[in-house]
Amino acid sequence: MSVDNLKCPYQEGKLKATESLVARVKSEIIHKKLEKTNLVWLELNGCAGNIISLLNGQSPDFQYLITQMTNFMYSNSLVAAEGSEAMDHLFRVIGSDFILAVEGAVSLKEDGIYNIIGRQKEHAVTGLEAVKKLGEKAAYVIAVGACAAHGGVSAARPNPTECVGVHEVLQRKVIQLPGCPCHPDWFMGTLAYIMLYGDPPMDSRNRPLMFYSTTIHDRCPRRSYFERGIFASKLGEKTCMFKMGCRGPVTRIDCPIRQWNGHVNWPIEDDSPCIGCAQFGFPDAMEPFVNFDTTKGE
Amino acid sequence: MPERITINPVTRISGFMEIEADIENHIVVDAKTKGLMFRGFEKMLIGRAPFDAIYFTQRICGICSTAHSVASSLALEDAMNFAPSEQGRYLRDIVHGCEFLQNHLRHFYQYTLPDFVKLPENYPLFKTDHNDYRLPKNLNDKMVEDYFASLEFSRKAHQMLAILGGKAPHNHGVFIGGITAQMTIDKMIAITSILDGIGEFITDKMIPDVFKIGEYYSEYYHIGRGYGNLLSYGCFDNYKELGTLYVNPLVYSNNTITAFHQDEITQQNTYAWYNENNEPDIHKQQAYSWIKAPRYNNLPYEVGPLARQWLCGDYRNGISVMDRTIARVLEARKIAGIMKTLLEHLILGVSVQEEYTVPEKSTGSGLIDTTRGALGHWITIENSKIAFYQIITPSAWNLSTQTETMKGTGEQALIGAPVNDINSPVEIGRIIRSYDPCVSCATHVFSEGKHINTIQVV
Known about the structure:
The structure holds two protein chains of two kinds.
Chain A: H1 9-15, H2 17-30, E1 37-43, H3 49-55, H4 62-69, E2 70-74, H5 83-91, E3 98-103, E4 106-107, E5 116-120, E6 123-126, H6 127-137, E7 140-144, H7 146-150, E8 163-164, E9 175-177, H8 184-197, H9 209-212, H10 216-219, H11 223-227, H12 255-258
Chain B: E1 3-7, E2 17-24, E3 27-35, H1 41-44, H2 53-56, H3 65-80, H4 86-112, H5 137-165, E4 174-175, E5 178-179, H6 185-216, E6 230-232, E7 250-253, E8 256-259, E9 265-268, E10 293-296, H7 305-311, H8 321-344, E11 361-370, E12 373-382, E13 385-392, H9 394-398, H10 409-414, H11 426-433, H12 439-442, E14 454-455
Parallel strand pairs in B: 9-14
Antiparallel strand pairs in B: 1-2, 2-3, 4-5, 6-7, 7-8, 9-10, 11-12, 12-13
Helix pairs in contact in B: 4-5, 4-8, 5-6, 6-8
């Protein structure tokens, strides 16, 4: 339950990346070297779990984000206004300098009418239309969570509403933060980096390297069990869950060191296998999530 | 002539919703509640490995993911003819309790409060154009403080959830048998200490705040009653040693409480976008929403905290917008107390996990009351794969479409409500938010192999 036993300065540096970037943003805003940025949070076809996850952020917390760091313009889950007034709010941002964060997938079926996000007079605004309008004008676009990054669960087979990731409908770079949900630190660290320096260093699929560089398997505290061939046959055991379907070996993300919800726990520490939620291909390529038939596999 | 108004998006809910209301002489004379997003989970689940449903169905909803993991585990246990141990049930119910606390805190402060409290307008998120804010400045300021202070406690409720469930939202802990991990002394201490803090916040801030709002907006004790039919599948109930700590499966209609019977549930889709084969059909003529119309004994029912508080006898002041909101807050205190009792009865270091086998062929159901009300999962397994999966969510009950003869529960609550200023119909959002709508949950495909009888009126 603790990261106190971390001794490797490289890992520790990575773990503290978000905190130190945000601290720098804080100090530059206080010293008027940096201005608050306009931020729009657009929810599309998904579960709205990424904004819920963002509200769990600690360093800094959500209050700091919306009062000190950004002009937080819009979120369907949180905005006080409603109806056409809220829609006006959202689209009024076009013309200003803003960062667009998107959660949820873009539904393409029948021009997007399976996901109506609001109405402007008689016109029903689809998620597809909103993400195109805003995405083309934004200074940066961040796809937050699995659905926005690559379709995620919203695009699970047979993909009934033809869902795709945000980058599929925009002719521009989209910063990818896959995960189900996105950890608040991954988003906050990326946002802070953008505000200070612009695009963060990314891999070939536009994932920030400061979070997505290393597989779970490479930093897994149960790695020694894997090396010695000691495998769990049921959940709740403290050994390696590779044979039960753990996707740690293919999933590039920092859960083993970052952990979740104030850094108290994470799936493998909770004696359950990684299901690869932060890797492209989730969920279809990651199934079965839990497999007791450890000799045959799927 | 009535004048028609449309509110879209209804913000501060989960998912996308439109309300259409006809208003005559400042009274709502007709209303439609419309769910405007669709993903088709029940279709996606077909052919998948049955145990994966526990993690997969959580992705229906980012707010109440734990609820789906619990209902899914119950459905699988039923299909496997497997009874979890009491320790397993306690552990799983504690995790579920964490979600109740997190949801109720977030809903009351982040979703409900902005309807009644003027938040600082120098932040763009909080700009509004209606003026029906009635609290005196010092009280309004205090509530703004509590809006922000609550974030720490809802976050910590998720932290408790993660201590036992790995992470939140979308936990890994809830599974067949209870949860994956064991309770240890350090987890116990961490959870107990967080729970005490949350309990204090509920008692010292949240409960006084809701009653103060009730004082200044007292007409809302008489607005938004709806049909007054209440239903619960039961939760935190029927423990072998502890009995029922909260509420049994019960139904209230016509001033009478009776036992709940699963066979009385039906679902209609006359006005929802599904064709005669229950396939999505957005071009269907009379349809206006993705939400179907679940009925009990052919009647629409309200589900959620007020239904539970009423059915267990804790709160019977009335059925209205304000009573619904108060019941949610009082329920938060109740759940914190129940969690304490369950924690006291846990034995440390007990593993509740086994090597499970997927049945070749079976059916099962998992019915449980969750934060927003009655949630049901129904599964059919064939060739050791999911052959059929059906989900009826609380918000499908509360925001159902109409049938030939009756409006949905939320629609009925809107009809008859006053609207003072048709250009700023603030009453409508307040009424519908009292149900804590979750449209992400409420919209589904219902496919072949029906467990719940669908009545076709095409």
